[in-house]
Amino acid sequence: MKRLAILGSTGSIGQSTLSIVEQFPDRYSVATLAAGRNIDEAFTQAERWRPRVVSMATEELASYLEGRLRTARLDGIEVVHGTAGTVACATHNEADFVVSAIVGVAGLEATHAAILANKPIGLANKECMVAAGEILTAAARERNVPILPIDSEHNAVHQCMRVGAHGEVKTIWLTASGGPFRKTPLEEFEHITPAQALKHPTWVMGQRITIDSATMLNKGLEVIEACRLFDVPPSKVRVTVHPQSTVHSLVEFVDGSILAQISVTDMRLPILYALAYPERPASSLTFDLAALRHLDFEEPDFERFPCLRLAFEAAEKGGAHCIALNAADEVAVDAFLKGHISFNGIPRTIEQVLAATPEAHPATIAEVLAADQQAREQARARVAGS
Ligand code: MG
Prior knowledge:
Helices cover 47% and strands 15% of the residues. By secondary structure, the chain is an alpha/beta fold. It folds into three domains: 2-149, Rossmann fold; 154-266 and 289-315, no CATH class; 319-386, RNA polymerase sigma factor, region 2, helix turn helix motif (Rna Polymerase Sigma Factor, Chain: A), CATH 1.10.1740. The strands form two sheets. A seven-stranded parallel beta sheet has the order 4-3-2-1-5-6-7, with helices on both faces. It has a four-stranded mixed beta sheet with strand order 9-8-10-11, with helices on one face. It is globular and about 60 Å long. The termini are far apart. The relative contact order is 0.11. Magnesium ion binds at residues 151-153, 222.
């Protein structure tokens, strides 16, 4: 029995994880839940799963949840809050495996603490790897703690990598759907609206990641994530636009063989893979091979998607530049959604912030968070001035 700490339990990855626990009750149980701000969902989950600890974003939300649990006569569930609360969930002595699915750098400290506490990680939070991947992977290697990717592309790469040795890998190919603007004339980009950008062709996801898919910044973050997870330089990672999103990624080996992973576009599969690794439990997720008619692959257009170019440049520099890329994008996407800047304003803001970022390699999580704050302030100033 694996007892799970689920960080980000009310988000879409958290809920999919709980549906896996539901399907495999003899394999998985819930130890702790970090639920964030959704009080109703947090209560429902606490009632259903009876975790040892639930963490809420704020003290106020935590005391409100405590009150509701008391009224419902649900005893024995400790309610905590804030970063310390998330860390308590991640490092609880009854947790055997941590699903890290809090969006943004908010989950960073807890993910780091879990690694230091020797807990295997299922990682769905790519911002953690982008901002602090150098620190996290070093700590994990030192302790022999596995980090299993839940991001669909990296999960696919992880599966393909099992076939060959690390030194036999020539190129990691990350597939990208290309987003909704793959064929939009370039002169129309300036006038793309948030409503248009929020329509993703193949995946239903949160707002920021949907906009990041439209700019392809998301793929850029995934390039950095791949470098860190699989310990390869950016020159060994390439992006291929694959509009069907059927091949989740590929690994090319030095002998010329290319391995691809194909499956339904359902996050439960990579979650189950990460939870069960190195086993493969039978699941009901099937892919209809006969329905497969086309597999198209094309080179990404770096002129159309400047965010992808910026991400490769940041990947080469590492450290503070990767932190700034992520932080500036979060601010810029928020400003775009609020109508403060144009779609093209997103890469412009990121480029300006990166140009003002010194080359540095933060060595601690505190330094990472400070660099993240600095980049956010820079980005806010640029957005306000545009
Ligand atoms: Mg992905």
